Amino acid sequence: xxxxxxxxxxxxxxxxxxxxxxxxxxxxxxxxxxxxxxxxxxxxxxxxxxxxxxxxxxxxxxxxxxxxxxxxxxxxxxxxxxxxxxxxxxxxxxxxxxxxxxxxxxxxxxxxxxxxxxxxxxxxxxxxxxxxxxxxxxxxxxxxxxxxxxxxxxxxxxxxxxxxxxxxxxxx
Length: 172
What we know:
The protein is an alpha/beta fold. The protein has helices at residues 17-32, 64-67, 86-95, 110-119, 152-156; strands spanning 36-39, 54-59, 74-78, 99-100, 102-105, 124-127, 142-143. The chain has 2 domains: 1-79, Aldehyde Dehydrogenase, Chain A, domain 2, CATH 3.40.309; 88-172, Aldehyde Dehydrogenase, Chain A, domain 2 (3-Layer(aba) Sandwich). The protein contains 5 helices and 7 strands, in the order αββαβαββαββα. Strand 2 (54-59), helix 2 and strand 3 form a beta-alpha-beta unit. The radius of gyration is 21 Å and the shape is globular.
């Protein structure tokens, strides 16, 4: 973890001290709310606004760390029913959000993966990977995770003004 110019880095600092403080507040809220801290959760003692990648388990859908977009290296794990109906239960939990930016499905069952990809209400879905977006792929979310798309041809639509012209050709 470090700056982009340093070899081997895949995680850099967050954008500002204000955002770092906000992320650390979410982490404290998760601890106090009953989620189990699996790893991370601290500011990294180096120049810049670094926070450890953080993972919580034993989360419930009503927790703030689950319901809100944190925009920091914080992940949450929620349990879903196993057995019959497990995929639908997982989809219910995943889609029970006002947000829908990015999601992921990890399975060796291609049929299940295709079903989940179709049913997830998010703008980008990774299958056996998590967000490996490309500059030529449209990017944007569903619901309250954005309006429109950035990048690729879809991103050009933000710069266009469309006009509809209706002409009555029955009169000379």
